[in-house]
Amino acid sequence: xxxxxxxxxxxxxxxxxxxxxxxxxxxxxxxxxxxxxxxxxxxxxxxxxxxxxxxxxxxxxxxxxxxxxxxxxxxxxxxxxxxxxxxxxxxxxxxxxxxxxxxxxxxxxxxxxxxxxxxxxxxxxxxxxxxxxxxxxxxxxxxxxxx
Length: 147
Known about the structure:
There is one protein chain. The termini are far apart. The relative contact order is 0.14. The chain has 147 residues and is of the alpha+beta class. It is elongated, with a radius of gyration of 24 Å. The protein has helices spanning 37-42, 92-99, 116-123, 125-146; strands at 12-16, 20-24, 31-33, 49-60, 67-73, 78-81, 88-90. It has 4 helices and 7 strands. Strands 1-2-3-7-6-5-4 form a 7-stranded antiparallel β-sheet.
């Protein structure tokens, strides 16, 4: 598959966050999404596409070679759309904006930042739960001993 933007001969299949396998250009960082993969990488069911009158973009689909047309997503983001196959071409910056990732350069994989703060916040209530349970048990045994 040839990159529509920089015509690099091979797009590299890259797993994205365990949800989808995207085809990324190792040179420019652009991403080809097959039909339905936009939902998998953005997790936004309301993000759809609407053609902009079918204006040719000057690029060709890496899958079929058909001309791509300019389109906009419902949030206003400009993309290149394959009218027949339904695939989308996103430039590196566009893909990073939609997914919250950053592409650091050739031969790197795009991953969302680890949610360390969320993981720590989920663990924070555990000690409190332990202390509450221990305190309740001690109180109940003391009450039982008093009777």
